[in-house]
Model the fold of this input.
Amino acid sequence: MLKDIKEFKVEGVGIATVQEWDEIFGEIVYNVYLINQNKSALEGVLVLSKGFGIIEGEERKTSLLRHFLDTVEAESFSKIEPINHELFVLNNQYQLTYFLEGKMYEKTYVFESNTIHPDNYKQVPFLKKPGILII
Done:
């Protein structure tokens, strides 16, 4: 039965971790965004996020969080969640599911441990801020 389900390749959709200045707290914060580079809106967008890995020889994991973004317009972005910089030592996984033109798409994005670092930052499209984008 599962072999009968057609999988569609995700294109033009990514997850970005972005460094931003928070005016309220007067400090640098980090946020995770969904970037839609497609010419069509994404609908029924659901993102599951979790962190996992080993710290000082001990296995650690965060809670599984669910984010329903509903619709992400064409060529735009939507904030998923803030992320604490202390979690950068973990693998941070985002499992994305959405509908595009009546078809369901799914993809898992992983920021591997210690890769969210200023040495790896580039300008993130649409946000025009430093960060890391996984397409």
About this structure: The radius of gyration is 16 Å. The domain at 15-134 is CATH 2.60.40 (Immunoglobulin-like).
